[in-house]
Every structure is written in C-alpha cells, then in structure tokens.
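Notes from hallway chat w/ T.B., transcribed later so I don't forget. T.B. wanted the structure written out for a chain they're using in a teaching module, and asked if we could keep both sequence and structure tokens in one place. Agreed to drop them here.
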Amino acid sequence: MSDLLAARSQMAMSLGFHIIFASIGIAMPLLMVIAEGMWLRTGNATYLKLAKRWAKGTAILFAVGAVSGTVLSFELGLLWPHFMEWAGPLIGMPFSLEGFAFFTEAIFLGIYLYGWERVGRRAHWFAGWMVALSGVLSGIFVVMANAWMNQPTGFDLVDGQPVNIDPVAAMFNPAAFQQTLHMTIAAFLATAFAVAAIHTALLRRDSESDFHRKAIAIALSVGLVAAILQPISGDISARFLADNQPAKLAALEAQWQTEAGASLTLGGIPDEESQTTRFGIEIPYGLSLLAHHDPDAEITGLDAIPADEQPPVAIVHIAFQIMVGIGFTLLGVGLWGAVLAWRRRELPTHPWFQRALMLCGPLGFIAIESGWVVTEVGRQPWVIYGILRTEDAVTDVPNLVVPFVSFTVLYIFLAIATAWLLYRQVVIEPREEERQTAPDTTGEPGYAGS
C-alpha cells in the first residue's frame, strides 16, 4: 500500500466512522426536545420517559463522536500537513466556530441530563433547544470548511500562494449553502428513520407499548419532512455542480460526451475504457432538465476534461446512484406511512409497512456515506479544487500503514463498545424498568418547578 493510498484510506475510514455520530448529534437532540415539548403540552408521562431515554442515548453517541472528531483533527495535521499549511489561514475560522458550538452543546447537554430535578421546566427545555441548535451549527461549520475545498474563495493567488486572505469570504463560499443544506437534511433523514426502525422492531415484540408508538410517531414525522425537503436540496446541488464543478457532475452522471439535451442515466455500470455505461436506463433530456431546468441545455462531458483531472467515474457514479435510490426509497416509505396514518387516524401498524420501515433503518446512513464518497472522490484529483492536488498535500512521513492499522483497531473497539452501550440503553434497561415498576400514566414531576 502506497503512503498516499494509506493516508487516503485512513482519512476515509475516520470520516466514515465519525460522520455517523456527527449526523446523529445533529438530529437526535431535536427528537429529544420534541418529546419533552409534547410532555409539556399534554402532561403525558410517556413523552417525559421518552425524552429522558433519548437524552441518555444522545449522550453516549455524543461522547463517541467527540473522540472520533478529535482523532480527525489530529489526522488533518499529521496526514495532510501541506494542505493545512496552505488552507489553515482560510478555513481556521469555521473550525474554531465548530469548537465553540461543540463546547456549547456539551455544556447544555450536561444541564439537560442532570437538570431534571434542579432547574425549572422552561429552563430545561431551553437547554434542550440549545443542544439541538449547537449540534446543527457544529455540523454546518465543519461542512462549510469542506465546501471551501470544493469552491475555494477568499484569497488572491500569487505565485502559487494565497494572499489578501479573507476568512469570512472563505467560510461563506459559493458551495457553503447547498452543501450544508444537503448534509443537514440528510442527518435528520437518516437519524429519524433509524430511530423509527429501532422502535418499530421493539413495538413488534410488545404491540401494546405506548412508549414505542409515540417514539415512532415523532421520528416518522421528522423523517418525512426531511425526505420531502431532500430532493429539493439535491436539485440545488445539481445545478451548482453544473455551473461550478462540471467534472464531478459528469462523473456522477457518467456523462461521457459534451452535448445539448443530455439524457439522464439511471443505474448502470460505467466502463471507463470504452466510455460507455452498461445496463443503464436513459431518460431523454433528463440531465439537461435537472441541471439547468432546460431540456436543451448543454452538459459538459468527460471528453472536455483532461484525463489527469477526471475523477474515478465508476466509484462516483455508483455511489451517487445508491444515494439517490435510498433517498427516494425513504421518501416512498415515509409517504406510505403518512397515507396509512391518514386513512386509519392512528400510527401505521400494517405488518408490511413495519417490515419496510425496519429495513429502512440503516439506509439513511448508507446514503450519507455514499454522498460523502461522491463529494470527496468526485473532487479528485484535487484536495483543493483546481489549486492543490491530493498527491501534493499528503505528508512526507513514510510507513503510514502502521497508523492506518492502529486506528482501524481503535474504531472497531469504539464501534463494539458503542453498540453494547446502546443495546443496554435501548433494550435491556427498559425491560428491567418494566419489571421493577408498574406503568405510570398519571405523570411524574420530572422538574424542580416552573
């Protein structure tokens, strides 16, 4: 394994691991505060129990996300020193703001976890909202830095070096809005469907559980809203790529030739040698219509991109198809649930719907991983688009295979420990509580007062 491949593999593994916890950290607090808000409005103790249970799970995942995020911050300097030397003055601001948001989230999460009997209900709910807001902002700031790598701005380039640096302009680069919007919605979509799937599996074991019914109702509501918004966000992203990163758009759509009225290819396996896509389904004028809202618009193909600046087409195209396919699958299941709920005026309990919902549990996170493959691999061979190549940004230190193996072992250990803790939190502890205490539907104090 070459040092470049080892560095890229280690960074990909670290990002792939961390992004799951980052996404949950963005979305889970919203479910938590919605449950508490329902308790405040209705007085139903089940909502309070749900908020407390989700808060404990959020804390576990927050801790693991903090560890994996810290590792990533070290890897940026250790594996990509030439990138950090070049980009540090430009993207230091969003990383600093992310640190501020992270500490704010940690402080208010502590208040939320340990303040049930110590602060008033309004102050406690406010703390929950601050956790939710800080989690979203933390994700936005990090994605802003990544967006800058796709659309570097905020400086003048003189003799290959950045001068007249403007960190604010760099942070609010042209790619920031579409990329942060898409990632934030994806986090809510993936997390909400995962939570709904888990509680659906538990509801099938205990069909009379009001706890799981209310959890599914909240999670599905958030998931459906996110599923409806995500195609709109995807449309914004596609039009941005058409104007600013034509090579990435051509790769993810396997568009080999520059042409007007370009077709949209669904599925298929790209063959880079013959520059064809086998087994794909073509929709006439579809790509031009999606990218420019004009069926006759010209789409830049890979034939217009120098060979040494083309991304790996097969990887990017297949990852993009997986992401889009999952997105529409989740939208379909969400709408199916909404129709069933509207017809029966209650939570959908149709066996086939429940099976479909459980299968959807991991799909959102698979879509997120695929989306980041599209974002990162689709930018290759550039680490800073059009300016710094990935091979020029990697460290000069040899023997990167050893840290790659070491960090792989660390992440496996963290994954096993997290899975066990969540299993205890979601499955074992509720069963123990049910055996020790009788169901309480009359309400419980939960707060120090108002």
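Follow-up for T.B.: Residues 3-436 form one domain. Might be a good example for the class.
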